[in-house]
Write a structure and sequence with these properties.
Layout: H1 2-11, E1 14-19, E2 23-28, E3 33-37, H2 38-44, E4 68-74, E5 76-81, E6 87-90, H3 92-97, H4 102-108, E7 127-128, H5 129-134, H6 136-149, E8 151-155, H7 165-168, E9 174-175, E10 183-185, E11 201-204, E12 216-224, E13 231-235, H8 236-246, H9 248-256, E14 259-265, E15 268-274, E16 277-279, E17 285-288, H10 302-319, E18 325-328, E19 335-339, E20 343-347, E21 356-363, H11 365-378
Parallel strand pairs: 7-8
Antiparallel strand pairs: 1-2, 2-3, 4-5, 5-6, 8-19, 9-21, 10-21, 11-20, 12-19, 12-21, 13-18, 13-20, 14-15, 16-17
């Protein structure tokens, strides 16, 4: 324990500092070196923030050639600015916490827990709705599971129409779509969506034809006494990372080729052009849009089409591989809440005799993460 505390202290101990023309360089007690440009320091100084977190200073009011007239290190760092003589004070803890080189950013960023079927040889325990409604610690743990793993399982949700809203009420609001505030998943005649049949559904994300796509989905079981109809879940981020490592060129194909998704019914006609794998500026996977049923005719250069389909086949086979997929049966009162941009869901086909009735709805993950942040701050 003493060593750990010493390491923490060294991280925020200023060993040396160097004043340059446009930046301050700091060598920390643990040997790490950070560079802080003066423009960034003046713009982001804690004194320039209201207690609500909003910035009080206009960035345009800071000259681009800002320099330091004097730098004093005495427990804290005081910088007297050359342009107006103002002195700004920074604590070492704040500077280290906000160091913006990539190695420090990676330490601070939340790392998602990627998983495959081996991680859940036994399903994680379900959270009881009544306990979530009365125990903030349980609610925090449930929301954290969605953040970290992309899904959570629920139990004891009342077996009554629209009771799924009680789950969403724990953290946010239902997102209406052309299906309304909720939708019934059961066999119907002349279905507008193959989900409303008894057919097998491979792993997919919902509503890829929307922009923005619904980021959370909840499915609640009202009845399920059919032969079959088991649910499946796949961590699309885990599959995408393995796909990238094993087949980097094919990964680039699916992360750069625009395809069209579309849904059409009597009262809706929705389409969106997107890549199947979405990445950010750091080339990290941040979203999956995969729904073979909704893909439409798309166009790429003729010399790239064959490569695209080879990449698509590889990725699609991996998504259906039992190494990644977990399969389980949900009964009346059970529900699952999952990140629709990360976790692909599906089902095993079933005989139409018997009764299988689920209700589903959509919500927004930013509300979930906001509620989780508030709960973690309070505890």
């Amino acid at each position: 324990m003493y060593i750990a505390q010493e390491d923490v202290m060294n991280r925020t101990t200023i060993k040396n500092h160097q004043v340059e023309s446009d930046a301050l360089k700091i060598e920390w007690g643990d040997g790490h070196q950070s560079t802080y440009h003066y423009m960034w320091l003046r713009d982001n100084a804690p004194e320039n923030r209201h207690r609500n977190g909003q910035k009080l200073i206009d960035t345009l009011s800071i000259p681009l050639d800002l320099s330091a007239e004097k730098v004093t290190v005495n427990g804290t760092i005081q910088i007297q600015w050359a342009n107006d003589g103002h002195v700004t004070e920074f604590s070492p803890e704040w500077l280290r916490q906000n160091a913006y080189e990539s190695s420090e950013i990676m330490v601070r960023r939340t790392q998602k827990s990627l998983w495959d079927s081996r991680a859940f040889s036994k399903l994680p325990p379900s959270f009881s709705l009544s306990e979530l409604q009365s125990d903030e610690t349980q609610l925090r743990d449930m929301l954290a599971h969605v953040r970290d793993y992309g899904f959570t399982l629920l139990k004891d949700v009342p077996v009554a129409s629209k009771s799924l809203f009680q789950v969403i009420d724990l953290f946010g609001y239902v997102r209406d779509t052309n299906y309304g505030p909720y939708f019934d998943v059961k066999v119907v005649s002349n279905p507008s969506n193959l989900a409303f049949t008894s057919a097998t559904l491979g792993g997919h994300t919902d509503n890829p034809y929307r922009h923005p796509v619904p980021t959370l989905q909840l499915l609640h079981v009202l009845s399920n006494n059919v032969d079959g109809g088991d649910s499946t879940l796949v961590d699309g981020f885990r599959v995408a990372e393995d796909f990238k490592a094993k087949f980097p060129e094919q990964f680039k194909q699916l992360a750069s080729t625009l395809v069209t998704f579309r849904f059409s019914s009597d009262d809706a006609d929705l389409s969106c052009e997107s890549t199947i794998i979405q990445t950010n500026a750091r080339d990290e996977v941040v979203g999956i849009r995969f729904n073979n049923r909704s893909m439409q005719t798309f166009y790429v250069e003729s010399d790239k089409m064959k490569a695209f389909y080879e990449a698509y086949h590889t990725f699609a086979h991996m998504l259906e591989d039992d190494r990644y997929k977990i399969t389980f049966k949900m009964g009346a009162g059970d529900a699952m809440l999952f990140d629709n941009q990360r976790v692909l869901h599906g089902r095993i086909g079933y005989k139409s005799s018997g009764d299988r009735h689920l209700q589903g709805c959509y919500a927004d993950i930013d509300s979930l993460l906001s509620k989780l942040a508030v709960l973690e701050r309070a505890h």
